Amino acid sequence: MKSLLLALVLLNTPMAFAEVKVGEAAPAFTEKDQAGKSHTLDTHKGKWVVLEWYNEGCPYVKKQYGSKNMQSLQKTYTGKGVVWLTVATSAEGKQGYVDPKTAAQHMKDAGMNSTALLLDADGTMGRTYDAKTTPHMFVINPTGKVVYAGAIDSDDSADPKTIATATNYVSQALDLSMAGKPVATASKKPYGCNVKYN
Question: How far apart are CA 81 and CA 90, in angstroms?
């Protein structure tokens, strides 16, 4: 009877989320992008990596993309050799879900300058990183350690006008850590729309 009850509990328990800690190794992942190319953390070993959780229907994502702020960040840092991976974790049938064809079109329409748009509809990568919101940002150094995790900036409004006066934690983390300096703000609670898991 106990084993039956345990089985029922396990069946009704949602998939566990990982705990990603700044200063520790970033979790491994394997995901395909909009072109069907597979990406792993090892694929980009020795490089700086930014992970950006994305849902085109989210007002907080629209804040960043409508203002061209996200595209500007992507262009600036990929120009410095950073691998910028945008991640779409929305489940099929939920807001933000994209198939490969739609994902490629989103990249074109939004003028994305990210390295790739990873398709994580089953939520595996999102749960591995405990991605809570769109956007939710992570910065990983060339040794594979997380140097920043959390909100993109210091203003949790959906108003694009706030971008100019907000502290951008991602650019700050990249600029400082790439210069060999300690990151002033290594983590901040992420804000935005909830990631649309199954």
Answer: 28
CA–CA separation, 105 vs 101, rounded Å?
A: 6
- Supply the pTM of this predicted model: 0.90
* CA atoms of 142 and 181, how far apart (whole Å): 14
Contact 50, 77 (CB under 8 A): yes
pLDDT of residue 18: 55
pLDDT, one tens digit per residue, over 130-157 is 999 999 999 999 999 999 999 999 999 9
Contact (Cβ atoms closer than 8 angstroms) between residue 93 and residue 129: no
For 135, counting Cβ atoms within 10 Å of its Cβ (0-12 exposed, 13-18 middle, 19+ buried), the class is buried
What totals of helices (H) and strands (E) does the chain contain, helices first? 6, 10
